[in-house]
Amino acid sequence: MKDQSCGYCMGGELLDAFGIPICELSVSTLILFREQSHPGRCIVAYKDHVSELTDISGEERDAFFADVARASRAIHAAFRPDKVNYGAYGDTGCHLHFHLVPKYRDEYEWGGVFEMNPGRVKLTEAEYAQMIEKIKAQL
Question: Which of 11, 13, 57, 69 is most buried as measured by Cβ atoms within 10 A of its Cβ?
Answer without folding.
Answer: 11
